[in-house]
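This section describes the prediction task in plain terms. A model, or a person checking by hand, is given the sequence of a single protein chain and must write out its three-dimensional structure as a string of tokens. No templates, partner chains or ligands are provided. The sample shown here is typical of the held-out split.
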Amino acid sequence: KAGSSLALALTNMELARELLHQGREKRARKCMRQVSGLVEAAGKDFVPEELQFLLSDLRSDRNLLQEIIKMGQELVDIKENRELVKRIISTAISITGAERGAIFLGDPKGDASALTLRASKTLTQEDIESPSFSAALEAIRQTAITGEGRIVRKKSDSETGPPSKDSIRTCICVPMKRRDEVVGVLYNDNRLLGSSFRESDLEVLGYFSALATIAMDNAEAYEQIRSLNEKLAEEKQYYQEQHLEFTHFEEIVGKSRGIMNVLSSVSQVAETDATVLILGETGVGKELVARAIHERSLRKEAPFIRVACSALPENLIASELFGHEKGAFTGAVNRRIGRFELADRGTLFLDEIGDIPPEVQVRLLRVLQTKEFERIGGGRTLRSDFRLIAATNRDLQKAVREGWFREDLFYRLNVFPIQVPPLRERREDIPLLVKYFLEIYASKFGKTVKKTSASDLNRLSAYDWPGNVRELENYIERGVILSSGMRFQMPELGRRSGAAASAFDQPVTLRENERQHILRALEITGGKIRGEDGAAKLLDIHPNTLYNRMKKLGIKPAKEDRSPTPPAT
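The expected answer:
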């Protein structure tokens, strides 16, 4: 009598609930019509979920279509599969006013009738396997086979009476299609009422099913991409831990700090015309550094001319550098163009420049200052626009102090020095170089050798390599020749291998001494760490402590001992 719309709506909903339990659906729907005005103002969520199907006759097709489109857009944004299927089922129940809902997916091999329950609400696997679900299950199968939606109602005289617990009064099935292929079925049913689904629901639910299938495809693709990214990240971490990844700058292989510093210097000086002096022991790769500078310079299209100064007799160095005219000296039967002339507009690389005799040093200094020279036996002044890169394994400053290398020439050369570290100072690059040379020589000799054990890599990393990268390359080439299968056959190493070094050798740091001691223990135990015959027992320390020390020293466990390494403390 007071006319409160909220009080009237609540009263009508309670009446509808009671009438529904009595099986008087038409009267219940009549009560719910009194609620429709408030539902339009307050929204459908105002009505309890179990009563919403009673409003199906009052739905606006236009509003429902807008609601489905909005729901479809929301579904596409859900990336997690579990959350997505829950939302699909809840939305389908909301659209149809169903009591229960489920998604059945087909066999990935293409058998449309072989369906499995993917997700459900108020419907269990036991319910599906019960005899009372057989008719609904057959409807689901037929929908999957034919690709056409259907509504199935149970024909019973007691349809208006109190519903039984398991009896399904009506169900609706619509196909889930991907590019005209049925991949599953969206299912809803009702055990309370036999008239809860209308024929128009097939079209509405079918449209929503298409949006839901697209959303599930997107979520599956997202999961696959995420899984692939995780796998790639794990593989990258694994290869990094096993030193099977390498970074190379042309043919300069390595990722140690020393090599990174060299490559940084190369990048800084390459595009200038500054004279570069490359310092380092024999075999460290000074020529590779020089070539890398040339290849990144503005002169890269012009020649790279190399002169091995230490390989030339003293009486021929000047002829090699400056050239000579016919008859300039005994044996000069033809005119010869010198390396300075050949390097015009390009780069001249003087390897082991510390071996040039003093008389040639004077002429070299003049050429560096003026870019002008004369051939031996000639009177015409020639000019060459070259960029000079020099390299030496000698201590030129010491040579200057001792008087056999000109000080003014040294300062002319030492414009931009680059120090290339020896291999013993960048041991972390040794496994990378081993892999690099293995691939080269296995391909060259037609071999299948690919693998080196962790213990072999540890032995190679412990060796001092007095011949540096060149010695390592020759060693790998020899090993590939000796190898007959996929496993690399280790040739005999030199005397200064790891802990086997003589007590009369130069003292090493405590860190290096500890590294060699652990490597020796691992060699004795065949790479095994744990157990009575493991390296930890031999060293009288806990295995976890040994793992931590190995990690800090850059020693990797053998493949046969892949126990999880505890975090460093």
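For orientation: The chain is about 45% helix and 15% strand.
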